[in-house]
């Protein structure tokens, strides 16, 4: 696919890198957070950090849905599958997130729970249609990109009168998490954000304006291709040099200021804000997640099966929380790469290739020694 | 799981669905979240849904911008030597 290859052109990347090196002021450091796990993945996979001068440092943010899901939320899903005998459907990465009692959804499956990995909410609906005698629960996780597909499924289920389908809603909001990062105690010294790619195709660039206007942090929305990320870094370096804090959009081929209004409308019809939601690493953050509107209460698995959320502390050795807040790097975790590996993750950041630890383990680990 | 790929719409199927080409693999996706997507257009596909149409012209402009920056560099290099 030529269309994609051009966005990965190594020569162009070197040119942008040369510009960054030329324009970055050696007398200062640039601490830039890529909020989104997709960017973390691109930065590790294409070795982007190697192309940057030492004073331009990328800090991984919390923008990976499986990484920010606290243990208690996975426990809830496991309880549904084991104690209530439901068919639990979820996206693939989620099944490997470590939960309480040395379990994960995958281990629960090995012990007999009916856990199924799906690719799309359409698949979950199909499982429900095909198994009318069973209860089917979709563990719905993710940021603003995965929320509209869940909303479509709920409306479809309502229209079809599917009585055996419900969701465990763990959808979370990007701007709320960015606020939480900036409000973190002790603070994370940040000079700017590489703004999410696909989240922004849905919500647009407008919701980031407070970060520029009120917090004085530049935001450059970038696509996931390596050139996009390089270009966004250059744009951030320029903003910092000029003393500007603006929302700029490198990803104009897919992102507008307003975003996808149709998707936003659907989400607003189906969901409302949760007062409080616990994130891994960020703690309880008000208005940072969604729940179903009362109109769709029949599809809310938390109400249907009365599985309450119980807070569970992370594994003591795990530094995921600090990593998700941008305060530590994967290699600073004592068990990184030894006890905790992608095959045997102890913390959530080691699960998906968009998690900081897994990304660093797969692509960046050997650079440190070299 | 946030990784989504640009894909070309190859065929409109049942109302609201389409077959796209995802790097050589043909797959049916839902168009419920985008209006009037037509055959030949590029969309960003995520968990089985088109999230947004990809502006072809803007995409080309982005590529030009990258390319232009490359040329600017050469120019600068010439000036510097
Ligand atoms: S290496 Fe494992 S345990 Fe340590 S912070 Fe990363 S995910 Fe958590």
TrEMBL record, chain A:
Q: Name one GO molecular function term.
A: iron ion binding
The record's keywords, sorted A to Z, are: Iron, Metal-binding
Q: InterPro entries recorded for this chain? A: Hyd_form_HypD, HypD_1, HypD_2_sf
Q: Which GO terms describe its biological process?
A: protein maturation
Question: In the UniProt record, does the keyword Iron occur?
Answer: yes
User: What's the short name of a Pfam family annotated to this entry?
Assistant: HypD
Q: What is this protein called?
A: Hydrogenase maturation factor
Please give the organism: Sideroxydans lithotrophicus (strain ES-1)
UniProtKB/TrEMBL annotation, chain B:
Q: Name one GO biological process term.
A: protein maturation
**UniProt cross-references to NCBIfam families, sorted A to Z:** hypC_hupF
* One example GO MF annotation: iron ion binding
Residue runs in coiled coils: none
Source organism of the structure = Sideroxydans lithotrophicus (strain ES-1)
Please give the name of this protein.
Hydrogenase assembly chaperone hypC/hupF
InterPro entries given for it?
A: Hydgase_assmbl_chp_CS, Hydrogenase_HupF/HypC
Would you say which domain of life the source belongs to?
Answer: Bacteria
Q: Which Pfam families match?
A: HupF_HypC (PF01455)
Q: Tell me its family.
A: Belongs to the HupF/HypC family.
């Amino acid at each position: 696919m030529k269309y994609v290859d051009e966005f990965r052109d190594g020569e162009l990347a070197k040119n942008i890198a040369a510009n960054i090196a030329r324009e970055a002021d050696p007398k200062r450091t640039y601490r830039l957070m890529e909020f989104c796990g997709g960017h973390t993945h691109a930065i590790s996979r294409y070795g982007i950090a190697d192309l940057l001068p030492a004073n331009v440092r990328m800090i991984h943010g919390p923008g990976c849905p499986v990484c920010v899901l606290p243990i208690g939320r996975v426990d809830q899903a496991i309880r549904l599958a084991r104690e209530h005998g439901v068919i639990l459907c979820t996206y693939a990465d989620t099944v490997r997130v470590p939960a309480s009692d040395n379990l994960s959804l995958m281990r629960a499956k090995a012990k007999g729970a009916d856990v199924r990995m799906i690719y799309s909410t359409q698949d979950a609906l199909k499982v429900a249609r095909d198994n009318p005698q069973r209860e089917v629960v979709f563990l719905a996780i993710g940021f603003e990109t995965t929320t509209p597909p869940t909303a479509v499924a709920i409306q479809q289920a309502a229209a079809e009168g599917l009585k055996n389908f419900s969701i465990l809603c763990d959808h979370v909001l990007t701007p709320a998490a960015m606020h939480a990062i900036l409000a973190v105690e002790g603070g994370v010294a940040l000079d700017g954000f590489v703004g999410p790619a696909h989240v922004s195709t849905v919500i647009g660039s407008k919701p980031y304006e407070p970060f520029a206007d009120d917090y004085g942090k530049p935001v450059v929305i970038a696509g996931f291709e390596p050139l996009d990320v390089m270009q966004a870094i250059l744009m951030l370096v320029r903003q910092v040099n000029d003393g500007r804090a603006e929302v700029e959009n490198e990803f104009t081929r897919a992102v507008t200021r307003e975003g996808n209004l149709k998707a936003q409308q659907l989400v607003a019809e189906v969901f409302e804000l949760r007062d409080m939601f616990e994130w891994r690493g960020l703690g309880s953050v008000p208005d940072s997640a969604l729940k179903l509107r009362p109109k769709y209460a029949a599809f809310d698995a938390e109400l249907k099966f009365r599985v309450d959320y119980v807070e569970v502390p992370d594994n003591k050795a795990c530094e995921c929380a600090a990593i998700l807040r941008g305060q530590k790097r994967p290699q600073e975790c004592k068990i990184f790469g030894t006890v905790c590996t992608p095959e045997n993750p102890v913390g959530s950041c080691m699960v998906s290739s968009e998690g900081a630890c897994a990304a660093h383990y797969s692509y960046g680990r050997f650079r440190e020694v070299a | 799981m946030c990784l989504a790929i640009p894909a070309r719409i190859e065929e409109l199927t049942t109302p609201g669905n389409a077959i796209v080409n995802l790097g050589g693999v043909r797959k049916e996706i839902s168009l419920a979240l985008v209006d009037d997507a037509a055959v030949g257009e590029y969309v960003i596909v995520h968990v089985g849904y088109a999230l947004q149409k990809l502006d072809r012209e803007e995409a080309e402009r982005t590529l030009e911008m990258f390319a232009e920056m490359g040329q600017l560099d050469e120019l600068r290099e010439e000036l510097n030597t």
